[in-house]
């Protein structure tokens, strides 16, 4: 159902890998709500070819960009503005990758070179994207930028490994750049801290299925789905949330503020 919340708006969506991706669902919802979209992902992800199905469904061009490469980002913002015939209203940063997790390195035995890459891809990339837009003055006044985070930035989830540090940095960049972009252009920058969600990036975390089940039992509303996360992104890109900025917004069915739930107590043999 469309309320045309994003009628006339133009956005760049990073990170749609396959139909499970949060970015994929968000692109569909934004299109449904009247937005025009440019899709982007790393060249290696584009080679999978899946994204072309999404591009066709929402009539969006696909422009490759490695988010750690400033020339790629500059080209992306130039081509997106040429395609739209003007500036951009919203950006979704839906990107995460941990080399230490992927290569099975325990947090206490971290490889620091891999860690640098993880922080660059998963966190400083938000700074790179914002900086590129800032230098080119590519965002309209009252634009909105959203990046995706996880509660491991605040609480310890041991198997989340170095990604916990990456998410803490990501949330900090959203706050810090959000200040400057707010002053300069009334652009808002927020992170959404999403429930564990069965996607390619999510499933890379050790013990992920147990993680999902635990969060489901701990959350009064249950886990938030990728589709619901996409709906939340739409509200943040819309004009209904113009004064929300520099926030980390929990979209987790109440998990973050629950100490223990009845379901968990019963699972431990209590009443
Ligand atoms: N799945 C979860 O449980 C969960 C929970 C909270 C937050 N998140 C966050 O949501 C975001 C999206 O992840 P997802 O779960 O949809 O998984 P996903 O695997 O579908 O998406 C991750 C994306 O990052 C892209 N990417 C990786 N390296 C890149 C690079 N160098 N340049 C450009 N793009 C690159 C990948 O190609 C992929 O499209 C991530 O930030 C993730 O940490 C996920």
From TrEMBL:
InterPro entries: Enoyl-ACP_Rdtase_NADH, NAD(P)-bd_dom_sf, SDR_fam
EC numbers on record: 1.3.1.9
Catalytic residue list: 150 (proton acceptor), 160 (proton acceptor)
GO biological process, one term: fatty acid biosynthetic process
Keywords in alphabetical order: Fatty acid biosynthesis, Fatty acid metabolism, Lipid biosynthesis, Lipid metabolism, NAD, Oxidoreductase
CDD domains: ENR_SDR
Binding site for NAD(+): 15, 21-22, 66-67, 95, 167
Reaction equation(s) it catalyzes: a 2,3-saturated acyl-[ACP] + NAD(+) = a (2E)-enoyl-[ACP] + NADH + H(+)
Record-linked Pfam families: adh_short_C2
Signal sequence bounds: none
Domain of life: Bacteria
Keyword Repeat (UniProt): no
GO molecular function annotation: enoyl-[acyl-carrier-protein] reductase (NADH) activity
Family: Belongs to the short-chain dehydrogenases/reductases (SDR) family. FabI subfamily.
PANTHER family: ENOYL-[ACYL-CARRIER-PROTEIN] REDUCTASE (PTHR43159), ENOYL-[ACYL-CARRIER-PROTEIN] REDUCTASE [NADH], CHLOROPLASTIC (PTHR43159:SF2)
UniProt-recorded name of the protein: Enoyl-[acyl-carrier-protein] reductase [NADH]
Organism whose genome encodes this protein: Flavisolibacter tropicus
């Amino acid at each position: 159902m469309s309320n045309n919340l994003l009628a006339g708006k133009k956005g760049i969506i990073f990170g749609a890998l396959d139909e499970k991706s949060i970015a994929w669902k968000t692109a569909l919802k934004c299109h449904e709500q009247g937005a025009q979209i440019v899709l982007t992902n790393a060249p290696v992800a584009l080679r999978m070819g899946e994204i072309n199905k999404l591009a066709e469904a929402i009539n969006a061009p696909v422009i490759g960009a490695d988010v750690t490469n400033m020339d790629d980002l500059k080209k992306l913002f130039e081509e997106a503005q040429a395609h739209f015939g003007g500036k951009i209203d919203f950006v979704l940063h839906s990107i995460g990758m941990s080399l230490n997790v992927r290569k099975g390195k325990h947090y206490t035995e971290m490889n620091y070179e891999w860690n640098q890459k993880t922080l660059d891809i998963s966190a400083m990339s938000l700074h790179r994207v914002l900086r590129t837009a800032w230098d080119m003055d590519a965002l309209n006044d009252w634009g909105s930028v959203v990046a995706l985070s996880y509660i491991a930035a605040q609480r310890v989830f041991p198997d989340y490994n170095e990604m916990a540090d990456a998410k803490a940095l990501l949330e900090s960049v959203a706050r810090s750049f959000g200040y400057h972009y707010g002053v300069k252009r009334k652009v808002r920058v927020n992170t959404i801290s999403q429930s564990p969600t069965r996607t390619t990036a999510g499933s890379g975390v050790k013990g992920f299925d147990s993680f999902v089940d635990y969060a489901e039992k701990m959350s009064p509303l249950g886990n938030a789905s990728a589709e619901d996360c996409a709906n939340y992104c739409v509200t943040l890109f819309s004009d209904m949330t113009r004064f929300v900025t520099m926030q980390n917004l929990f979209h987790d069915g109440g998990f973050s503020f629950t100490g223990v739930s009845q379901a968990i107590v019963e699972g431990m043999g209590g009443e």
